[in-house]
Amino acid sequence: MNMGLVEGKVPHALLRGLLSRITKPGKEVIIGPAVGEDAFAVGVGRTVLVGTADPITFTPEHVGYYAVNVNANDVATMGAVPRWFLAAVLVPPRFGTAALRGIFDEIDSTCVALGIRLLGGHTEVTSGVTRPIVVGAMLGTVSGKRLVNPKRARQGDVLLLTKQLAIEGTSIIARARKSEVEHILGKRRAARARNLLFKPGMSIVREALSAVDTAPVHAMHDPTEGGLLWGLREISLATGLGVEVDLEKVPIYEETRAICRHFKMTPLGLIASGSLLIAVPAKQAARVGGAIGRIGLQSTEIGRLTGAGLRLMKHGKAVAFPSLKADEITKVCYK
């Protein structure tokens, strides 16, 4: 039976089926295409090349900034240093040349801030899009010993979450529904919600590299579309283990809570680029958290990896794991 797809990521089960149809990669591929994996890893001599590709489709604002950060984040979750970026920039007919220059300037400035170089890509005016879309591809490098391979994760590993939920979704909604959010939060807090995009910002590169510099990291994943809920499911798929999370420990911005209450959303399912899930041996969790704290960022122990299953706890009791058909942001921005 053919079912129509909703906007956003392809469902995990469907994606698994699609990937099962492709030709298997060669022996040089350490981490290949799989549900829950943020990037690929290929051995090139003594170096491991890590790469990913990701489009920016949820917002027409700051697409250059989003494209670089989202792709750099995926590479950094493997413990790699993001180095080279490619961008395919698609804009609709009659798109302003000044706005196009703005996208290029934003790509360049974001790359420079992260020590990345833009190597090329493609730029096209097409009636196939109604707003600017940037499809990015990022490459980075890491030594084999430092590569973070989720298959090394073990039952009992502690799960850390950096910053708070949900930076990206909160900022997008606060910008797209500016007047309504100002009515909910007041102008000062609404401005803070909009600015979460830049402070603390979407990048997780610093905390990812700090973590791998400090202790053996078994797995990392940035919860993007579908928020923490899909992020937990994806880290479970990537590691082959279960996840248990204490909801009372999950840090959520007060602005996010207020916006989600108003729009009848769960903050756990709101697109959450800017936070990082880190799985480390329990004995190393404090060291990693301390290292992240020393670079001025927050990290919180929210749960652990288990033998199997996805389990959310609240007040010491298990609660149902919510089922999302799409990211919560679609209730507000894409009706």
The CATH architecture of the largest domain can be given as Alpha-Beta Complex
What is the domain tally?
2
CATH class descriptor name of the largest domain: Alpha Beta
What share of residues is helical? Answer: 25-40%
Overall description:
It is a single chain. This protein has helices at residues 12-19, 63-76, 97-114, 167-176, 178-185, 187-195, 197-201, 205-214, 227-239, 254-263, 285-294, 330-333, and strands at 29-31, 40-44, 47-56, 81-91, 117-125, 133-143, 158-162, 219-221, 242-246, 277-280, 299-306, 310-314, 317-319. It folds into 2 domains: 12-143, 2-Layer Sandwich (60s Ribosomal Protein L30, Chain: A), CATH 3.30.1330; 150-333, Phosphoribosyl-aminoimidazole Synthetase, Chain A, domain 2 (Alpha-Beta Complex), CATH 3.90.650.10. By secondary structure, it is α+β, with helices and mostly antiparallel strands. Helix 2 packs parallel to helix 3 and helix 4 packs across helix 6. The protein is built from 12 helices and 13 strands. Helix content is 36%, strand content 24%. The chain is globular, with a radius of gyration of 19 Å. A 7-stranded mixed sheet has the order 8-10-7-11-9-12-13, sandwiched between helices. The mean pLDDT is 93.
